[in-house]
Design goal:
Blueprint (H helix, E strand, L loop, with lengths): L5 H4 L15 H24 L6 H7 L7 H4 L3 H28 L5 H17 L4 H8 L6 H16 L1 H10 L7 H13 L1 H4 L8 H13 L13
Helix pairs in contact: 2-3, 2-5, 2-7, 5-6, 5-7, 5-8, 6-9, 6-12, 9-10
Length: about 230
């Protein structure tokens, strides 16, 4: 049986640098305010759109004066890029942790694809998903340089899928050419942000099972325990 090389799909979680001096109270507060602004901006950009959200809206959401966000970010566009950057880095971390959690069971390629799909649904539709939705639909509002930087992060995120899809293709379980399969899979999964309603539809686990049945014609074995989103 063709297997997927472990080092390709079980990347190490990002490590924090050691030995940095402790931040002062002002520096910690500055960092906290930046985080608040990014999270508030993500919510508002998703709900009202980038053009429909003013800097005053964002400042009000975090209890600041209307001009205060410019102390932390040069412009509303810079804040938008920070939202997207945070979204991609969070997505990479979530995916890495999901794969590491599955590593002990030594799953085959189909089970790995299920892990990746389920993690991607969590990125798109789970807690903190405002960031990714903004990245998907507001990319026209950032600069070419910013898009290039985000494309590198997106490439890192999607690269983990490649060996899994290649293995499934070699096994005859994925009928479509790998490049087209990857594009179609991400297109289908990403569109779920337009129609999914947690109050009316299926759970994220059920969505992942349905996606597996659609993409490779099989559902994964039912895990002993699932955490519903």
């Amino acid at each position: 049986m063709n297997t997927v090389s472990p080092e390709l799909v079980y990347p190490e979680a990002p490590r924090r640098a050691r030995g940095r001096p402790r931040k002062t109270a002002d520096e910690r507060d500055d960092g906290n305010r930046r985080v608040e602004l990014v999270h508030a901006a993500a919510r508002l950009f998703r709900r009202k759109g980038f053009d429909g959200t003013s800097t005053r809206d964002i400042a009000t959401a975090v209890g600041m004066h209307s001009g205060s966000p410019f102390y932390h970010f040069k412009s509303k566009g810079a804040l938008l890029h920070a939202v997207m950057d945070e979204g991609m880095r969070s997505a990479i971390l979530r995916q890495t942790l999901a794969l590491q959690g599955a590593a002990q069971a030594r799953p085959d390629a189909a089970a790995l694809l299920h892990v990746l799909i389920r993690s991607h649904f969590d990125v798109l539709l789970g807690p903190g998903s405002d960031f990714i939705s903004v990245m998907l639909y507001e990319s026209r509002s950032i600069t070419a340089k910013q898009r290039s930087a985000l494309a590198q992060l997106q490439g890192d995120y999607e690269a983990v899928w490649e060996p899994v899809l290649q293995t499934l293709h070699k096994q005859g379980r994925l009928q479509c050419p790998v490049k087209l399969a990857r594009l179609l899979i991400f297109g289908a999964l990403n569109w779920s942000v337009q129609w999914f309603d947690a109050k009316k539809g299926a759970s994220l686990d059920e969505l992942a099972d349905a996606a597996m049945a659609l993409f490779i014609g099989e559902a994964p074995p039912v895990p002993a325990r699932r955490v519903r989103s």
